[in-house]
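[Help] Beginner question about ligand-bound structures

Sorry if this is basic. My supervisor gave me a protein sequence and a SMILES string for pyridoxal-5'-phosphate and asked me to "get the holo structure". I don't really know what that means in practice or what format the answer should be in. Inputs are pasted below exactly as I got them.
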Amino acid sequence: MKFNTKVIHGGQIKEKGYGAVMPPIYQTSTYAQTKPGEHQGYEYSRTHNPTRTALENSIASIENGKHGLAFSSGLAAIDAVLKLFEPGDEIISTNDLYGGSYRLFDKVFKKFGLNFIFSDLQDINQISKLISDKTKMIWVETPTNPMMNLIDIKSIAELSKQHKILLSVDNTFATPFLQKPLDLGADIVMHSATKYLAGHSDVILGALVVKDSELADKLYFLQNSTGATCGPMDSFLTLRGIKTLHVRMERHCLNAKKIVEFLSNHERVDKIYWPGIESHPNHQLAKSQMKDFGGMVSFTTKDGDFKSVQEITSKLKVFTLAESLGGVESLANHPASMTHASIPRDLREKTGVVDSLIRLSVGIEDHEDLINDLKQAIN
Ligand SMILES: *Cc1c(COP(=O)(O)O)cnc(C)c1O
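Answer (accepted):
No worries, everyone starts somewhere. Holo just means with the ligand present. The predicted complex, written as structure tokens, is below.
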């Protein structure tokens, strides 16, 4: 099955009762048993729920994995992964990580004895130097948020296999439409399905996909034991979102391209961060690792201080000033004061998240309206 068919049919089972084309929202906590211990595969909805199963199978299918797990949020999914480890274990990650992931690593799991190394993982030789016998996992995000740096998944996967450590990829920004980490050798794919997968800014949901059954069993155990699962309604909404993922992503990418063209020719715009630009340091990698360049664009303005950025972002009318990304509607975000405010200033600025940086989640509206909106705000 090709990707565009998988988003609609992948992993789905025909509903037998009434022939419903969409899986019903099984809004139930428990299931009747015929005899003690005899049931139809479902006992209690923290453990399993048929609507959630439909979603988990769908996500596993589009990521070319075997096992999918859905959670109440992206962070709950990451939380489950981190609980695979023991005090003293070490995890290597990028230094421009999503703020919430950084906070979970540094402020929650560090105190339970996990050690984290944050580094620029664009240079593969640099990573081998960081690996010790305590290292258990490399956690990457690519493209990174909000600087759109790319990390070479295939090379890191080779390295992690040599050292017998896990490689996890947060695939929220790219989605499997653009990039398939498991095909490139990663062990775990993680999603904040809140963003592109669900795609309509109406749900918070997270997911993991793996190929290895033993690893999947450990994660299913943690999912059930710690209980941060998503409800049937949210599972349904996400599943519905996924069915149009390919069409939405095509338009996100196209609109981003048009906006980058506009920004490149604007005299007040200084730097533009989008992997589709030829001068982007990872442009070649983007061409080989990704199908297209995505809908996330960051840029700085020339005289950009905090005040001028505030002025620009508050003048936007079609773009909404908001955290989050990946929905059908365009959003603008000021990372330094919004999504990345929890990262200390010195660390933040070292990675490029300066006060004048604006991040756009380009939606699927008419691109001329989006460009006109940016034009009036920046002018
Ligand atoms: C939003 C986001 C998360 C966290 O997901 P939630 O669904 O908000 O818990 C993790 N990683 C990335 C890249 C994100 O954008």
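A couple of things worth pointing out: Residues 73-75, 98, 100-101, 141, 145, 170, 172-173, 192, 194-195, 204, 206 surround pyridoxal-5'-phosphate (CB under 6 Å). Residues 87 and 113 are 4 Å apart (CA to CA). Feel free to follow up in the thread.
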